[in-house]
Amino acid sequence: MFAALLLKTGLPQWAAEMLLGALVVIALAGGGYYKGHCDAANADALAQQKAAIAYQQKLQALQAQGDALAGALAAEQAKTHVQYQTITKEVPHVVTYYRASVAAPLQPLPPVVFTVGFKRLWNCALNPDAILPAGAGCAADAAGGSDPAADDLDSGLTEAAIIDNHVDNAEACTGIRQQLNALIDWHEQVLARLAPKVAQ
């Protein structure tokens, strides 16, 4: 039908046939280009979709690892807390009685005086922010004020209070160490998972 229309234009038949052939070639080439362009776009989209799925799977695996490490940390810290509670229950006995020898009977511990200066230094060691710059020493205790003689007064601090404080601080330090170890483990696992596979 299109060839008949070309013949009506007054072109010789051979010119009409050549023109028709050229139009067919152009149409086929254009269709092929369009199809190739669509195939390339589809291939890019498919590759991006696969990459997104792979990334999502990797992210989910990392989250699962993090959740497992967090659960292990919580369990470890709960166990540690029970251990420190057991230690705390023993404090009253070890600060109340003593024996002069294994065979000797229990006796009350003699009173021990902890001075205001002792308490001040104890607290300074626990809180570096309380230390003044340039080696000026630790800030004077409120009870002691700025009088050096006041450092020699009885602070009222007991052995039980010191041990209780030490147990609390030791538990806090253990918890921080456990958190740090869990964070290191997580970091190493993430690096191992994200590191490119080495060809064997």
In short:
This protein has 200 residues and is an all-alpha fold. It contains 4 helices and 2 strands. It is rod-shaped.
Number of helices: 4
Average pLDDT level:
78
What portion of residues is helical?
A: 55-70%
Which structural class do you get from the secondary structure elements?
mainly alpha
Order of helices and strands: HHEEHH
Shape: rod-shaped
Strand content: under 5%
Indicate the low-confidence ranges by residue numbers. none
Largest sheet: 2 strands, antiparallel
The end-to-end span amounts to 66 Å
Determine Rg (CA atoms, Å): 42 Å
Strand arrangement across the biggest beta sheet: 1-2
The total strand number stands at 2
Can you describe this structure?
This protein is mostly helical and 200 residues long. Helices cover 68% and strands 2% of the residues. It has 4 helices and 2 strands, in the order ααββαα. It has helices at 2-8, 13-94, 116-126, 159-194, and strands at 97-98, 107-108. The protein has a two-stranded antiparallel ribbon with strand order 1-2. A hairpin with an 8-residue loop joins strand 1 and strand 2. The two termini are 66 Å apart. The mean pLDDT is 78.
Describe this protein with a few key phrases.
single chain; 200 residues; mainly alpha; rod-shaped
Write the layout of secondary structure elements.
Blueprint: H1 2-8, H2 13-94, E1 97-98, E2 107-108, H3 116-126, H4 159-194
Antiparallel strand pairs: 1-2
Helix pairs in contact: 1-2, 2-4
